[in-house]
Design a protein that fits this description.
mainly alpha; about 0% strand
């Protein structure tokens, strides 16, 4: 079915490990580089750093876990299979936070990675007894970050907030079409990520 094929493509494009990269490019697109304190020459170098530490490195280790049959597939259909990969992801997310913090760029980027680290740990704990949607956790986080920025910043982040809400709706629907999650797992995933990241940004912003 075409519907399922589109849902699969969207699920891959907005894989939880790719959300930090999308968040970075969204900020570069919408915000002033001077406010972000990112020199123009560093845009792609920084993108490469975030891509490697939040996607390539954790995915490589998760793939090795698959090769050694520690997990049954990269989709990790069982909640128990998710615990170790989520903790590994949390380590790399924290590494990204540490590196970004020491680059003397605007706090928004490393604050987001700190929130993402905490959410990965929370998701690992939840996976002990329940299968929360990691796609929606990540999208809820980016939506919460943009909501916080829209409330705190003189820059206009309202467009990014609206776009992230729309994309979250598409991905949530895709996960349900693919029968990857039950509705409650999608809703709880989104609002956990949203509320956690929103409160982090509002707390640090104040």
């Amino acid at each position: 079915m075409v519907e399922k094929q589109i849902a699969k493509i969207l699920s891959v494009l907005f894989h939880p490990l790719l959300i930090p990269v999308w968040a970075y490019f969204a900020l570069i697109w919408q915000a002033d580089l001077i406010i972000l304190r990112i020199p123009y020459a560093m845009i792609w170098k920084l993108a490469g750093l975030i891509f490697m530490t939040t996607f390539l490195f954790p995915l490589s280790i998760i793939y090795l876990m698959l090769r050694f049959r520690l997990i049954s597939s990269l989709q990790m259909p069982s909640r128990q299979e998710r615990i170790a990969p989520l903790l590994i992801t949390a380590v790399f997310f924290y590494l990204t936070y540490y590196l970004l913090k020491h680059l003397q760029i605007a706090p928004v980027l490393y604050v987001y990675m700190l929130g993402a680290t905490l959410l990965a740990i929370i998701a690992s704990a939840i996976s002990l007894w329940w299968k929360i949607s990691l796609h929606m956790l990540g999208l809820g986080a980016i939506t919460g970050a943009f909501a916080g920025l829209a409330l705190l910043s003189p820059e206009s982040f309202h467009l990014l907030f609206i776009l992230s809400v729309l994309i979250s709706g598409l991905i949530g629907t895709s996960r349900l079409i693919l029968l990857a999650h039950k509705p409650m797992e999608v809703y709880v995933g989104f609002f956990t990520g949203f509320l956690m990241m929103l409160n982090i940004f509002l707390w640090i912003g104040n």
